[in-house]
Structure formats: structure tokens, C-alpha cells
Amino acid sequence: MEALRKIGQTGGCLVSRALSASLHRRQTGAVPLLLLQQKRYYADPGSYVQVVRDTVYEDIAVVKMNRKPVNGLNKDFLTELNITLEKLENNASYRGVILTSANPGVFSAGLDITEMYQKSPEYTSAFWRSLQDFWMRLYSTNLATVAAINGHSPAGGCLMALSCDYRVMAQGKFTIGLNEVQLGIVAPFWFQELMIRTCGERETEKALQLGTLYSPEEALKVGVVDEIVPLEDVTSVARERLIKWLQIPDHARVLSKQMGRHQLREKLHSKQEEDIAFFTNFITKDAIQKSIGRYLEGLKNRKK
Ligand code: CO8
């Protein structure tokens, strides 16, 4: 009950945010356009994240991940993503986010595997904390979130997509899934529970044990994504879906989202240190390091 009371407290200011956003649309006479209209909002020099404000629906931010070549999530990138989302949450003029990639062909290759290889326990712990912190924010943000998955999305890439409120994926030779076991590592409980919440226990059990990477059609069938569209339409369709989300009064949408997500977010929050200790202990073991080293070597040699 205490948790629900806290969630409820956020509702009041969201009503006024929703009202001011719709008032703004009335004042500007903005109407939906099929084409995505964006203006550049901010991207610090050397940053890995670009934020672009929609010119029509100014309460929508398009967050483009831009760490070359494959949006590998290292500690700095995860921290920047977390700060970006926090800034958007604290800016009352935003109500929704489209998360996508600026790098062609890849939404995100997941965690930067080099961050888990031959690093000190201290660094490994800090790295894992940066992932947990970003995930807790993304999963339970009051902003409406749509993933525009415009390329491959394995492991941590899939985690980000699953954490959004809606997922639109590009058709084509892309894959998505939690493939951790293929590296000889194991998806932690919060990855697993998120997947179970999305596509059920049996599917998750099979997919996690095999490290299944789904084609877009397979991902749609099992519910890992909500929709598949041609690559060139991914962002505009994601935008249309987000607009639908934003037509719901914010206080009701947010309360409903938090009632569904609060428990898993709190579960990780209450076990954060335990989860860090487990990850650090696991990943720094000799056998696991060997396995990761072999996988990295395989990645490098893939195209030879
Ligand atoms: N980390 C670091 N480097 C990477 C990664 C990565 N995840 N993915 C690719 N790279 C590197 C490649 O080695 C290559 O480097 P180089 O140019 O020096 O040879 C470069 O990025 C480009 O990669 P590709 O040429 O392979 O690019 P493609 O566009 O052909 O393919 C793919 C893109 C499909 C994404 C492909 O690169 C791929 O399959 N990558 C591996 C993805 C993967 O397996 N990620 C798993 C990460 S683990 C994770 O996210 C969760 C861990 C949870 C741990 C829990 C433990 C308890």
C-alpha cells in the first residue's frame, strides 16, 4: 500500500504536465503528420546520445544511441543514457521518448563485452551498477517509452527494448533476444523476470537456456516485439504509437504502468548490492573469463 501511495503522489503533477502539453498543442495548432518532424535539441560534443525534439509533438523526445560501431553499452554510455533520461524526466515539457539507434543495422549489441573482460573487481562492480541504475530508470520511468528497434538487438539491447512500453522492430535480417548463455554467462534474475512478464514462462525458459536470437517475425510471434514494419518506417510508426500512448491522461497511464512495474523494480533495488556482488564474483572467475575471451575472439574472427 505504501508503494501505491508513493506512486499516487506523482500523479498530481503529471495531470498538470498533460494539460500544459495539450494546451501547447492547441496553441500551436499542431496536427499529426505522417512524416517524422524533428529538431535537434542537444548532443554534447563527444557524447554517445543525441536527443531530438519532435517539432509537432514537442512533448516527444527521440533519443538516439550513437556509440560506434554497435552501441556497445560501456559504463560511460550507460551513465550518459541514465542522465539523459533523468534530464528528460525533470523537464516537464517532455512526456514521451522514442529510443532508437543512430548506427545503421544495430539497435544495440548489448553490453560492451570488453567491459567484462580482464577488468578489476572494483571496475566490474561500478560497470554493473551503471547498468542496474539505467535499467531501473528506463523500466519505471513516468515517461511513455517506445523502442524503435532499427537493427540487431541481442542481450542488453533486448533488455532495453523489453523495458520500453511498446516495441516496433524493423523487418529484415536482424535478430533480438537474450543470448547470454552463448557467451557462457547467465542472464540475471531481473533480465529473466522481464522476459517472463513479456512472453511467458515456457517461452522464456526455452529462450534463455538456448540463448535464442529471434528473427523479427519470430519475435512478433512470441511477443518479444509488438509490431514489425519496414526499416524505413520504424521511427514514424514508433512515433504514431507513442502519440496514442500520450492521448491517455498521464496520471492514469503512469499509475497503471507503476502498478505493473513497481514490484520488479523494487526487487532489484532491494537486492542491488547482492546482485553486484554476484555479478562481480561470477564474471571475474577464471573459467568465465576464458569463455568471454573465446567469444570476443570469435566476434573478431567472424568476418575473416
Ligand atoms: N561488445 C564489444 N564489442 C562488440 C560487441 C559487444 N557486445 N558486439 C560487436 N562488437 C565489436 C566487434 O567485435 C567488431 O569489432 P572489430 O571492428 O574490432 O572487429 C565491431 O564491434 C563490429 O561488430 P560486427 O562486425 O560484428 O558488426 P555487425 O554489424 O556485423 O554485427 C552484431 C552486429 C549482430 C550486433 C554483432 O556484432 C554481434 O552479434 N555482437 C555480439 C552481441 C552479443 O553477443 N552481445 C552480448 C553482450 S552480453 C549482455 O549484453 C548481457 C550480459 C549479462 C551478463 C550477466 C552475467 C551474470
Spans of at least 5 consecutive residues whose pLDDT stays below 50 are 1-36
- Beta-strand portion reads 5-15%
Estimated structural class: alpha/beta
Terminal Cα span: 58 Å
Summarize the helix and strand pattern as letters: HEEEHEEHEEHEEHHHEHHHH
**Total domains, how many?**
1
What's the architecture, going by CATH?
Alpha-Beta Complex
Radius of gyration: 19 Å
Give the overall pLDDT as a whole number.
89
CATH class: Alpha Beta
- Ligands (ions, cofactors included): octanoyl-coenzyme A
What is the fold-level CATH name, i.e. the topology? 2-enoyl-CoA Hydratase, Chain A, domain 1
Tell me what the structure shows.
The protein is of the alpha/beta class. It has a single domain, classed as Alpha-Beta Complex (2-enoyl-CoA Hydratase, Chain A, domain 1). It contains eleven helices and ten strands. Strands 1-2-3-4-6-8-10 form a seven-stranded mixed beta sheet, sandwiched between helices. It has a three-stranded parallel beta sheet with strand order 5-7-9. β3, α2 and β4 form a beta-alpha-beta unit. α1 packs across α9. The structure holds octanoyl-coenzyme A. Octanoyl-coenzyme A (CO8) binds next to β5, β7, α10 and α11.
Topology:
Blueprint: H1 2-28, E1 38-42, E2 49-54, E3 60-65, H2 75-90, E4 96-101, E5 105-106, H3 121-140, E6 144-149, E7 151-154, H4 156-163, E8 166-170, E9 176-177, H5 189-199, H6 201-210, H7 216-222, E10 227-229, H8 234-246, H9 250-270, H10 272-283, H11 286-301
Parallel strand pairs: 3-4, 4-6, 5-7, 6-8, 7-9, 8-10
Antiparallel strand pairs: 1-2, 2-3
This protein binds octanoyl-coenzyme A.
Octanoyl-coenzyme A binds at residues 69-70, 72, 105-106, 109-114, 152, 154-156, 179-180, 183, 185-188, 279, 282-283, 299-300, 302.
